[in-house]
Amino acid sequence: MNFLFVHQNFPGQYLHIIRDLLADNETRPGTHEIVFMSEPNQNMMRGVRKVTYARPPAISPNVSLDAREFEMAARRANAAYQGALQIKALGYRPDIIIGHHGWGEMLNLCDVFPGVPILGYFEFYYRILGTDVNFDPEFPMPLERYGTVRAKNTINLLALDLEQYGQTPTQWQLKTYPSWAQSRIKVLEEGVDLELCQPDPTLARQNLTVGPLSVGPKQKLITYVARNLEPYRGFHTFMRALPRLLAERPDAVVSVVGGDEVSYGAPPPQGGTWRQAMMAEVGERIDLKRVHFMGKLPYRDHLTLLKRSDAHVYLSFPFVASWSLREALACGCVVVGSDTETVTEFVQDGVTGIVTPTLDHEALTDNVLRALSDKTLAARVRKGARDYAVRRLGMRAYLNRYRAYIEEITGQTLVPPEPPAPTTPKRTRRKNLRA
Description:
By secondary structure, the protein is α/β, with parallel strands linked by helices. It has 2 domains: 2-190 and 395-410, Rossmann fold (3-Layer(aba) Sandwich); 201-392, Glycogen Phosphorylase B (Rossmann fold). The chain has 15 helices and 15 strands. The strands form 3 sheets. It has a 7-stranded parallel sheet with strand order 3-2-1-4-5-6-7. Strands 12-11-10-13-14-15 form a 6-stranded parallel sheet, sandwiched between helices. The longest helix has 22 residues, at 68-89. It is globular.
């Protein structure tokens, strides 16, 4: 089968499905041809033909704030359109186009490859009520910004108007879309590698060092992970919980993994990073010999910390769930997670984790202390988290669901059956006849 994948940052979230398709080629050479269109970056995958399109220039500040995101999307759509024309000129025609709708690249590909089905990733539909906007009263959104939020759905709506196929990873993300659109989007629950992400009880019985952090068998490790340290992932709540946590558990060591950029929401109004803002607020009350800001870690170091964790804090506004939550559950962490549906779709209180109010740092402190002291509860939710991951988050099951949906859309089997071996006609044995 011929594939065209599209994502502005190759390979995006398509790494696993592409690896799985490449595995088909190893057993049956030539089964799939894979082309990936992206903005330029250094990433490469053997067996994938990478085609880049020009990164659009910055938007003029004269463009209305409400229109800037769509302006950039329109430029990307045109750049990807030109890239697709080059692919077509080389004689390549995909059987399916798979990509992320968030940045606009796929909006005009139907004009280059008419009749080719498009499977688009629908990540989130922006709303004024019931999701991230004004969830935290500490960060109110001015009324005049509401139009900008609604305008962010322009790409979503144009993508839906293509009347093609959609996917999203959770039931909650599906529910953010209008009811009329939900039937066009299929939930494909994403998975993690259960072999890599699995509990390792031996780590708690040894001295462990990861970067600047050292933790011994008699100490407790509290972990926090986010792509970037910011309020959307409850970083401010977590930081405010640290002074009492450290005071009541002198045996606790804290690992904080994440960068200092802004992925979601706004930067601090006073400037700088959210880490600087929170350190200015609580820094004098925390012991930096026990609290380690790890930055962005190599993946194996990240997993090692999860496997050693005694309490893993995962907080989120009502927004998209992180891969790290799935990984923490698979590693059998005691997850202390937000009471937002983003998290409770995965974390059931007392079964697969401990649910805590997202914005209440005192309640978070109480729940982390309970996770560290109640061995029966910790053992139960560790087992529950791993069992849930095995039932619902396995990578192989996710890839099988993905493959089945591709086959449903295209009407083709991903790996055609082996042709029957040629049969040799049976030779009839002649009897020797004697005269």
